[in-house]
Amino acid sequence: MPRLPSSSNLTFDRRELLRGALGAGLGAGLGALPAGAAEPGAVSFKSNPFTLGVASGDPAADGFVLWTRLAPEPLKARGGMSAQPVEVTIEIAEDPEMAKIVRTTTETARLELAHSVHAEIEGLAPGRDYFYRFRAGDAESPIGRARTLPAPGDALAQIRFAAAGCQRWEDGYYTAWRAIADDKLDFVFHYGDYIYEYGHTDVVGYDKRPAPRTMPADFPACYTLTDYRRRYALYKTDADLQAAHASCPFLPSFDDHEVANNWAADGAPGHTPAEAFLFRRAMALQAWYEHMPVRRAQIPHGPDVRAYRGFRYGALLDVAVLDTRQYRSRQPCGDGFLAGCTEADIESRTMLGAAQEQWLAARLAQAPATWQVLAQQVLFAQFDWRGFPFVKETAAPIIDVDTWNGATAGRERVTAMLQAAKIANPVVLTGDLHRALALELRRDWRDPASPCIGVEFLSTSISSVGDGPATDADRATMLRNNPHLKFFSDKRGYTRHVVTPKQWQADFRAVDSTATPGQPVRTVQTMLVEAGRPGLISQ
Questions:
Q1: Backbone angles phi, psi at 113, to 5 degrees
Q2: What angle do CA 112, 302, 414 make, to 5 degrees?
Q3: Which pLDDT score, from 0 to 100, does residue 387 have?
Q4: What is the pLDDT of residue 16?
Q5: Which residues in 168-178 are b (16+ Cβ under 10 Å) and which e?
Q6: What is the dihedral of CA 245, 250, 256, 257, to 10 degrees?
Q7: Average pLDDT for residues 486-507, to the nearest whole number?
Q8: Averaged over 402-421, what is the pLDDT?
Q9: Using CB atoms within 10 A as the burial measure, which of 221, 490, 503, 518 is most buried?
Q10: pLDDT score, position 504
Q11: 166/177 Cα distance (integer angstroms)
């Protein structure tokens, strides 16, 4: 903590100064334009400006966010756009043919936000489908479907949604996103790893096999705002991902690869010092905002963004979207899959930070829905990784300290919150590990006889790590070492959830192969939870 010259006796924290500088500089660019800034004028496009598709997200009972980004040449630094602001018209209709227009509004797409549009629509009816499209100059976007939240307290017969993420471009095709689009769901929870920050490669996987598809050779590892913008643009050119976004609202979050592998708070293992890393984080989070259908409340201020927020689906389902990256303790014992890491159990360690823990406790204390969801990024349950192919065999359990196993006291505080609020049916949704798991949660992981208090569904990756290597022997070892583990799959895909007042059904959907497009997608396992009876039932 450096001191100013001796003429002053004030002391400043370098990181706070950096946050202030970023907030005043980069963050200021996200707000109102300065006086005299260019106003939108007439525009004509030589090619389609809607190459990145359309999306809706973050719904409310009377509306939602509608997103697009103008990018006629999406992989160029500015997406092929000039500095001129562009007026974008948004039409909202009651029918997919756009014959019954109920709202027309305009937004201005500006260079400062990569000519992205985040239209916050209000004043619509609750619990129903709407359809939308954008117009800019003489160009018209595809039509998308959005859906408002039900009215507070509405008794719902059913909610259908998907949890998905981890979609590294080089590792395979996005066939699972096409299946999600075909499911015609109420929403999608995207838990993160929307992009991967690594540079161009021709090979992937532990065996260095040829990549099913590759990024352009001039794509380096992401550090600058231009790097991150181009990476999102590449991913969003995928037709299957565009179809999923157009099919229903997304509740987007982020995990590590939107910034850097295994980042935590103001750093990442093996990466730049904190002072430099916060600049990188600021670039990454601005690009995340520019490409996600989220609200102005999620505009980053320098390296900081308020990503945790909640959504209520009538009396049936409450979804608390959590952030397990910005406020967490750094990974203990140097990160990785480790045995005997006592540092993980230190009482002060956290995954959410004090403010987010207080927010979650207050939300849980409200009148509960039938099902309470903690929608987050990394494995919540205790887990012993012995038996998995890349983990060395030891006498002691092996934990992944990038998960809640690296901050056990933080997990115990959340578990205590659920009990204090008398949450009858807690469900944790997770991703990150590129495998599908279904687990029962215990009140006290130190006691094998501790009762089940809820369940966790961990979704596999859309494409990351390609087709899975785990064998039957590997699975048998993990099941033996983790009696609360009720299902494990090393395939790619997603999880489809069908929720009623009496039952939660999780369908683990798998793609036969990500190496070629258009492969079949099938349900490899269905798990059930009965309301009021914590525990998993195989179907």
A1: -115, 30
A2: 125
A3: 82
A4: 61
A5: bbbbbbbbbbb
A6: 10
A7: 97
A8: 97
A9: 490
A10: 98
A11: 12
C-alpha–C-alpha distance, residues 516 and 346, integer Å? 46
SS3 content of the chain, % helix, strand, coil (to 5): 20, 30, 50
What is the three-class DSSP state of 30? Answer: helix
| CA–CA distances in Å: residue 101 to residues 60, 94, 132, 366, 415 | 20, 7, 9, 37, 47
CB 423 within 8 A of CB 370: no
What is the dotted CATH code of the domain comprising 54-147? Answer: 2.60.40.380
Name the CATH topology of 159-195+250-274+306-512: Purple Acid Phosphatase; chain A, domain 2 (3.60.21)
Return the bridge partners of 436, or none: 489
Write the pLDDT tens digit of every residue in 107-134. 999 999 999 999 999 999 999 999 999 9
pLDDT value at 225 more than 90: yes
**What three-state secondary structure class fits 65?**
strand
From residue 257, give the alpha-carbon distance in Å to each of 19, 436, 533.
21, 19, 36
**Entry pTM:** 0.94
- Residue 281 near residue 266 (C-beta atoms within 8 A): yes
Spell out the domain ranges in the chain: 54-147, 159-195+250-274+306-512
CA geometry: angle at 428 spanning 59 and 344, to 5°? 125
Q: What's the token pair of residue 6?
A: 């001796």
